[in-house]
Write a structure and sequence with these properties.
The complex is a heterotrimer. By secondary structure, chain A is mostly helical. Chain A is built from 16 helices and no strands. In chain B, helix 3 runs parallel beside helix 4.
Chain lengths: 383, 399, 298
C-alpha cells in the first residue's frame, strides 16, 4: 500500500510538471518576441533558477546536516568558471559555431555536468579536513575557503578579473561560449527550468533516502547517531560534496545567464545579493530543513531585490520613500531584521510542499489558524 | 506587543533617515514633459550608486545631473527637455544587466553606463542585440568598443594611457622600471598589461612587478621595498585617488623609495585625499596622465569646475567630468541626427568626423568609438603643506 | 636583511591593528557565542565619528587623539543599541543561526545607512595626521611611533581586560554567563545586563581600534569594516576565541603571515595564505593556538 502511494506520488508530480512545462513553452512561444517578456521575465527566471538551486543545495548542509557553511558561493564560482572555460574551449576547437543544434545542446549539458562534478570534487577535498570541526569553526573554515577560491581564480592567468576573453574584457564570452543573449535566453529557458527541476528532484530524493535519514539523525544528535551505527564522517563529507555538486550546477547556469564572470560577484560580501552570506540568509528565511522554503525564499529575496531597484511601481511612491529605495541594500537589511524578529524559524519551518498532501495540509493549517484565533480571543476576554 | 513596538521603532528609523536622505539625493524622476510641447528626451544612466564602488557612481551621477540641468535651463535638446532615469548596478554584472533590461523595456534608447569595464562588458552585446546606444563614461578596457556597433565611450582605452606612460618613461631616460598594481581590479590590471607591452615595444625593461590581492589592501610598504631592492627609479602604479593619497605615496616614501611614481587618470582629485598635517613633500615626483588639466584656465574647464563646485561643494573627479561629457556628446549626436531615435543617434556617433568639444578635451571618435584625444601629463607639486597639480606636457599621439 | 626587518615591521603594524580589533570580537563572542559581523562596522562608525570630531578637537586646542572619547561614546551607543534592538529580541525567540543572520543584517544595515547619510556619503574620507610622524630607526628601516603605540595599547588593553574578567565581580559574572546562562541566572546574575556591559566594552574597544587604525591608515569608507572585521575575526579564532591573550597573539600572527607572504611568496596571493594558515591551524588544533581542546560530554 505504502509503496503504491509513493509511486502514485511520483506519477502525479511528473504529470503536473509536464503540464506546467508545456503550458510554459506555449506561453514562451506566444510572448517570446515581446519586449518585456524577453527583457524582464525571462532573465528574471534564469536568475531565480540558479538562486533556487544554490539555496536548496546549501539547505542540504545547513538545514539537514546542521553544519554552517559560509563559502557556498566558492563552489558556485568553480562551477561557473568550469562551464565557461569548457564551452569556450569547445568553441575554439570549432565543435560548434552557432548556439543551436544537437551538438551545442550536448556540449551545454556536458558543461553543466562537468561544472557540478568539479565542484563536488573540490567539495570533497575541502570537506574531509573541514568537517572535523563544528559550528562556528566550520563556518570560518568554509568562509576562508571561499576567499581562497576567489583569490586563486583572480590569479589564474586564463580567467580571473580579466574575464575569459583573450582581450582584457569578458565581452567575448557573450558571443561565443555559453553566455546567452536575450534571444537565446528565451530559446533556452527550458534548459534552466529542466535543470532546476532535475536538481530539486534529486535533492528531494536524497533527503527521503537512507542518506537523508542518516544526516537528519546526525543533525539532531551526532553522538546518538554514531552510536546507532551511522558512519558520521562518511555521511557528512558525502552530503557536503553532494551539495557542492548542485552549487556547481547553479554556477553553470549563472555562466549561461551572465555574459561576464567577475570574481567579485562570488566574494563573501559584495554589493549584490549573490554572495555566500545571502545564500545562508535565503536558507534560514525559507526554513532550515525545508527545500520548499529555500525555493520560495530564493524567489522572494530575488523579487524584493529586483523590485526595489527596477520595479515600475517605485516611481509611483512618494519622494521620501523613493529616497530610501535608492539604497536597496538598506531596505533589504531592514526587511531581513523584521522577518527574523517576527518569524525566526523561517517562512516554512520544516514543512515540505507536496501535491499529494496539499488538501490535508491546507485543511490542517486552516484549522490551526482558527484554533489560534479562538485561543487569542479567549485570552483577550480573560485578560 | 513588544514586537509591534520594535517594528514601529524600525519604521521611525526608516522615516528619519529617508528625510535625511531625500534632502539632496532624491531627485524627482518625472518633472519634464509638462511645460514643453514635446515629449522629453529620455537618457538612462547605469552606474554603481551603492555598494563598494559607490564613489564612482556618485561622480557620474552628479556630472550627468549638472549637464542635464544646464541643458534644460538653456532650452533642452532640439527644443525638448531632457529627462534622466537613473539605475543602480551595485558594481555587479548581473545587476547591471537587470538595470539595462529594465531601462530598455521602459523604451529607453540612449544609455550612459557603466563605470567599470567589468559591468559594461556584461551589457555591450545586449546593447547591440537590442540596438540601443551605450555610451560609457569610464570603461577603459580595450575590448569594450569594437567597429560597427552601438557602443561608444568618453574615455580613452587602457592601451593608450599605458603606452603614454611607457613613452614618458622612455623619453625621460629610464631604462629599467617597476610596476605595482592590483591583480583583482580590471582597471589596474588593464593598465599594467598595456604599460608592460608598450615598454617591450619601446625597449624599456620592466624589472620588478608587484601586485596586491584587492583594492581593500592598506599596506603597500612591502611592494615598494622590493622596488627599492630592484633598484628602479620609475614605478608605474595604476591605482585610484583614494589609495594613492593616503596610502601609496606616503608609504612608498617611508619605505625609502625616492624615484618617480607614475599613474593614470585614477589619480585625479588626489590632492583632496591627502593626510592633512603630514609631510606632503612625498608627493613631489608623482606624475600621472589625465583627460584634462583640472587647473586649466580654458573657459570650458573652468566654467565646468566652478559650476560643479557651486552645486556640490567639491571639486569634480574624472568620473564627474566624463559623466558630464557623456550628456553633451549625446546632445551633439542628437542634434546632428535631428532625432533621438537610437539607430540615428548611433550613426551620428559613428561619424568619425564629428568633433566634440568637451571638458575632457576636444576630440572625435575613432572607428571603434573611442575618443582620439591627447593626454595631459600632470605632476603633483608640494611645498609640504598642500599638494597642487602642474601641467607637464600634452601628448597628442604616441611616438 | 633590511627587507626582512621592513617586512617584520609591516607585519607588526598590520598585526597590532588586527589584534586590537580582535579583542573586541573575542569579548563578545566569548560571552554570547555570536559572530558579531557588525563589529567591523562599529570600527567604521568610530572612524567617521572621529573624522568629524578631530577638527573640533584641534580647534579647541586639544590633541587630535582626544577625539577618540567622542568615538567611544558613539560606538558604545551604537553597540548597545544594536544589542537592544536586534540581538536581544532575536536571542529570546530564535536560534544561534537566526542570531547570526541578524548580525549579518545589522552589518549590512550600518554600512548602507552610513552611505545614505548625506554628510558621509559613498566617497571615502581621509583624516588628518593624528600622531606626530617619526620613529625609531634601525639601519635603513624605521619603526614608527604609531606602530609602537598601537602594540603598547593592545598589550595594556589585553592586560586590563584579562584582569577585569578574572578579578572583578562584573568580569566573573561575564565568564559565568559565557559558561552557562541558566546557571548564571540561578546564581543571581542579571544575564541581560552582563551581556549589555560586554557589548558596551566591545564597542568601546572598536572606537580605540578605529583611532589606531586611522593613525596608520588614514582613510575611512563605509565598507571598510567588512574585510577588516573578517581578518580580525580570523585572528580571534586563530588565537582561540574567547581567550583574551589569544586574540592579540592571533592578530600578530595574521599580520606577520600577510606581510611575509607579500614580500617573499606572492604579493597578490596574501589572502590565500592568511586563510590557508587559519585552516591548517584549525585542523591541527581546532580550539585555536591558545585554546584548550575540550572533549565532548556524552
Amino acid at each position: 500500500m505504502k509503496k503504491n502511494k509513493t509511486g502514485f506520488g511520483y506519477l502525479l508530480n511528473t504529470i503536473v510538471i509536464i503540464l506546467l512545462f508545456t503550458a510554459f513553452q506555449i506561453i514562451t512561444g506566444i510572448f517570446g518576441s515581446q519586449g518585456s517578456f524577453k527583457l524582464v521575465v525571462v532573465p528574471c527566471l534564469w536568475q531565480c533558477c540558479y538562486l533556487i538551486i544554490l539555496a536548496a543545495s546549501l539547505n542540504l548542509v545547513l538545514g539537514f546536516l546542521g553544519q554552517l557553511s559560509l563559502g557556498h558561493c566558492g563552489f558556485m564560482a568553480i562551477g561557473a568558471y568550469t562551464a565557461a572555460l569548457l564551452s569556450l574551449a569547445c568553441e575554439r576547437a570549432e565543435l560548434f559555431t552557432k548556439k543551436e543544434g544537437a551538438v551545442f545542446i550536448l556540449i551545454l549539458f556536458g558543461c553543466i555536468i562537468a561544472a557540478g562534478l568539479l565542484s563536488a570534487l573540490v567539495g570533497l577535498l575541502v570537506g574531509v579536513p573541514a568537517l572535523r570541526l563544528k559550528g562556528d569553526y566550520l563556518a570560518i573554515i568554509t568562509l576562508g575557503f571561499g576567499m581562497i577560491i576567489v583569490n586563486i581564480i583572480n590569479n589564474l592567468p586564463f580567467c580571473g578579473q580579466d574575464g575569459l576573453a583573450q582581450g582584457s574584457a569578458a565581452a567575448s564570452l557573450y558571443k561565443n561560449g555559453l553566455g546567452f543573449g536575450s534571444k537565446d535566453k528565451v530559446a533556452y529557458i527550458w534548459v534552466a527550468l529542466l535543470v532546476t527541476i532535475l536538481c530539486l528532484t534529486l535533492m528531494f530524493m536524497f533527503i527521503r533516502s537512507k542518506y537523508g535519514r542518516a544526516i537528519k539523525a546526525i543533525r539532531d544528535d551526532e553522538i546518538a547517531a554514531s552510536a546507532s551505527g551511522i558512519n558520521t564522517s562518511y555521511y557528512k563529507v558525502f552530503t557536503f560534496a553532494y551539495s557542492a555538486f548542485f552549487a556547481g550546477i547553479a554556477g553553470a547556469l549563472y555562466a549561461c545567464a551572465n555574459a561576464t564572470l567577475s570574481t567579485s560577484s562570488f566574494a563573501f560580501t559584495n554589493g549584490g545579493i549573490l554572495n555566500s552570506t545571502f545564500v545562508v540568509v535565503m536558507v534560514v528565511l525559507g526554513g532550515m530543513g525545508s527545500i520548499t522554503g529555500s525555493v520560495v525564499a530564493a524567489v522572494i529575496m530575488f523579487l524584493v531585490n529586483y523590485q526595489i531597484k527596477n520595479g515600475a511601481w517605485v516611481t509611483a511612491l512618494s519622494a521620501s520613500v523613493q529616497g530610501v529605495f535608492e539604497y536597496p541594500m538598506l531596505v533589504y537589511a531592514i526587511v531581513l531584521i523584521v522577518v527574523i524578529l517576527f518569524r525566526p524559524k523561517g517562512i516554512f519551518g520544516t514543512y515540505e510542499f507536496s501535491l499529494m498532501n496539499l488538501r490535508r495540509d491546507v485543511k490542517a493549517s486552516l484549522a490551526r489558524k482558527s484554533a489560534e484565533r479562538a485561543e487569542r480571543k479567549g485570552a483577550k476576554s480573560h485578560g | 506587543m513588544k514586537k509591534w513596538k520594535l517594528l514601529s521603532m524600525l519604521l521611525v528609523i526608516c522615516m528619519v533617515f529617508s528625510l535625511a536622505a531625500c534632502g539632496d539625493s532624491a531627485a524627482p524622476a518625472a518633472e519634464g514633459g509638462e511645460g514643453s510641447s514635446d515629449e522629453p528626451i529620455v537618457i538612462g544612466v547605469i552606474s554603481p550608486n551603492t555598494g563598494a564602488l559607490a564613489a564612482y557612481g556618485n561622480g557620474i551621477v552628479t556630472g550627468v545631473d549638472l549637464a542635464v540641468e544646464e541643458i534644460n535651463a538653456a532650452g533642452g535638446i532640439l527644443g525638448r527637455p531632457v529627462e534622466v532615469i537613473k539605475t543602480d548596478d551595485q558594481s555587479d554584472p548581473t545587476e547591471c544587466l537587470n538595470a539595462f533590461n529594465s531601462l530598455v523595456s521602459q523604451g529607453v534608447g540612449l544609455i550612459i553606463g557603466s563605470a567599470t569595464s567589468g559591468c559594461t562588458s556584461a551589457i555591450t552585446d545586449a546593447a547591440n542585440e537590442e540596438e540601443v546606444c551605450l555610451l560609457s563614461p569610464t570603461a577603459t578596457a580595450d575590448s569594450i568598443t569594437t567597429e560597427d556597433d552601438y557602443i561608444f565611450r568618453a574615455c580613452y582605452a587602457d592601451s593608450f594611457q599605458g603606452a603614454i606612460a611607457a613613452a614618458y618613461a622612455k623619453q625621460a631616460g629610464y631604462e629599467k622600471v617597476g610596476v605595482v598594481y592590483c591583480a583583482a581590479d580590471v582597471y589596474s590590471k588593464g593598465l599594467f598589461d598595456s604599460f608592460s607591452s608598450a615598454c617591450a615595444e619601446y625597449g624599456v625593461e620592466v624589472v620588478a612587478s608587484e601586485s596586491t590581492a584587492s583594492l581593500d589592501v592598506q599596506d603597500y610598504t612591502n611592494q615598494f621595498t622590493s622596488m627599492v631592492t630592484a633598484g628602479v627609479d620609475f614605478v608605474y602604479a595604476p591605482f585610484y585617488y583614494d589609495v594613492i593619497g593616503p596610502y601609496v605615496v606616503p608609504q612608498a616614501r617611508a619605505a625609502g623609495y625616492t624615484g618617480v611614481i607614475m599613474g593614470a587618470d585614477g589619480y585625479d582629485t588626489t590632492p583632496d585625499y591627502v593626510v592633512e598635517g603630514a609631510d606632503l613633500t612625498a608627493f613631489n615626483d608623482v606624475y600621472w596622465t589625465n583627460h584634462y588639466d583640472p587647473s586649466d584656465t580654458s573657459e570650458k574647464v573652468s566654467s565646468f569646475v566652478s559650476a560643479y563646485e557651486a552645486k556640490y561643494g567639491s571639486i569634480p573627479s574624472a568620473f564627474g567630468a566624463t559623466g558630464y561629457d557623456c550628456v553633451y556628446m549625446y546632445k551633439a549626436a542628437i542634434e546632428a541626427a535631428g532625432t533621438d531615435e537610437s539607430s540615428a543617434v548611433r550613426d551620428a556617433l559613428a561619424d568619425t568626423s564629428a568633433v566634440y568639444e568637451c571638458v575632457t578635451g576636444t576630440f572625435s571618435l575613432d572607428e571603434s568609438g573611442t575618443p582620439v584625444k591627447g593626454a595631459a601629463i600632470i605632476s603633483f607639486v608640494s611645498d609640504g603643506s598642500a599638494v597642487t597639480s602642474k601641467l607637464v606636457d600634452v601628448v597628442t599621439e604616441l611616438p | 636583511m633590511s627587507t626582512f626587518f621592513q617586512t617584520l615591521i609591516v607585519g607588526l603594524r598590520l598585526g597590532s591593528i588586527y589584534a586590537l580589533i580582535a579583542l573586541g570580537y573575542t569579548m563578545v563572542y566569548g560571552i554570547i557565542r555570536l559572530i558579531n559581523f557588525a563589529h567591523g562596522d562599529f570600527i567604521m562608525v568610530g572612524g567617521y565619528t572621529m573624522i568629524f570630531t578631530i577638527p573640533l578637537a584641534l580647534r579647541m586646542g586639544l590633541p587630535a587623539w582626544t577625539a577618540v572619547l567622542a568615538g567611544v561614546v558613539v560606538c558604545v551607543l551604537v553597540g548597545v543599541g544594536t544589542e537592544l534592538i536586534a540581538y536581544r529580541p532575536v536571542r529570546k525567540t530564535g536560534t544561534a543561526m537566526t542570531a547570526l543572520i541578524t548580525a549579518i543584517a545589522m552589518s549590512l544595515f550600518l554600512e548602507n545607512l552610513a552611505q545614505a547619510i548625506p554628510a558621509i556619503g559613498p566617497n571615502p574620507k581621509v583624516s588628518s595626521q593624528i600622531f606626530a610622524s617619526g620613529g625609531i630607526s634601525i639601519g635603513s628601516v624605521t619603526m614608527e611611533y604609531t606602530t609602537i603605540i598601537t602594540i603598547l595599547i593592545s598589550a595594556v588593553i589585553m592586560v586590563i581586560l584579562y584582569e577585569f574578567t578574572q578579578k572583578t565581580r562584573l568580569g566573573r559574572a561575564m565568564r559565568c554567563v559565557s559558561e552557562d546562562k541558566a546557571a548564571a541566572t540561578l546564581m543571581g546574575i542579571n544575564v541581560n545586563h552582563t551581556i549589555l556591559l560586554t557589548f558596551a566594552v566591545g564597542s568601546g574597544l572598536a572606537a580605540v581600534a578605529a583611532l589606531m587604525y586611522m593613525a596608520q591608515y588614514p582613510k575611512v569608507y563605509t565598507t571598510m569594516g567588512s574585510l577588516l572585521g573578517l581578518k580580525a575575526f580570523v585572528s580571534a579564532v586563530l588565537g582561540g576565541i574567547g581567550i583574551i591573550p589569544g586574540a592579540v597573539l592571533g592578530g600578530i600572527v595574521i599580520g606577520l603571515v600577510e606581510s611575509f607572504t607579500t614580500s617573499y611568496i606572492s604579493s597578490s596571493m596574501a589572502d590565500t595564505f592568511v586563510f590557508l594558515i587559519l585552516i591548517i591551524v584549525l585542523v591541527l588544533k581546532p580550539a585555536g593556538i591558545m585554546g584548550k581542546n575540550v572533549g565532548e560530554k556524552v
